[in-house]
Amino acid sequence: MTSGCRTSGRTSGNRTSGRPGRPSCRRTAHAASALFCGTVLLTAAAGTAAAADPDGEGDLANKSAQQISDTSRRELLAAKSLRLRTATSVSPTKLDLTLDRAGNCVGAISKGAFGRVELIKRGKQVWMRPDAAYWKTQLPGREGIEAAKEFKGRFLHGTTDDAYLARLSAACDLTAFQRSAAGPDHPPSPPPGSPTPRPPVLHKGKPTVHEGARVLPITKKDGPVSQTLYVAIKGKHYPVKLTTMIDHETSTLLLSNYDKPVPKKTPAPRNTVDISALEKRLQST
After folding, report:
1. What is the pTM of this model?
2. pLDDT tens digits for range 92-110
3. Phi-psi region of 211 (alpha: psi -120 to 50; beta: other; left: phi over 0)
4. First to last CA, the chain
5. Angle, vertex CA 23, rays to CA 17 and CA 28, nearest 5
6. Helix pair angle (65-78, 174-182), 10° resolution
């Protein structure tokens, strides 16, 4: 699977040389789209296959797989807020963010053994709270240990005018995620003289249960890429899960809490440190 993530600067072991902390945050800022680069919600051509047994499909029973996929795409694009969770076998990075169109979000970005960062964004205000593992893997030697002690339990606070926080909080852009996940309205035309590729066919699976709710899987096979989209049967037909496999590598995208407001609670001033404290530490490293 293509992750789309690249590290600027050189690396040595688990430590990043050059200015500490910057490359990792640049990757995580775009993780929501990068984890699923080239794997948009299922689109194909008309004439898709329907399941032989429609039992339990609700009002989706008489719809084709393509119609169901199109409906779920419209519901995704109409959402004003949602919870986004991602995981992939090619990277330890995982996202768990609740975000809205105004750019507000609450959640965390985890990088496995490389640490975890809690993230809160309200308008232009951003709070981040890395754990000890993050500091120790992003800053060399005693710098990481001292940073972990200095900032333990406290949020670093600033605004999106700070380039560091702007990159980190870029994952809070729901509109950008919706465009990336839904894909273009019309597939790009092949180059002049090239044969028109045969579009893949979508297939309906049998209803199953995802996180306590009945869903209908829609599958697609396109060369080395296999995808399964799970669509809510009851109520609005939201896309709630997308699994992708490319060359034995897998990714999972979970979507939930549609149109529920992002929590408004922000850290108390006594639990925050201005982002300039980190900037000073980075400049002295």
Report:
1. 0.80
2. 999 999 999 999 999 999 9
3. left
4. 35
5. 150
6. 170
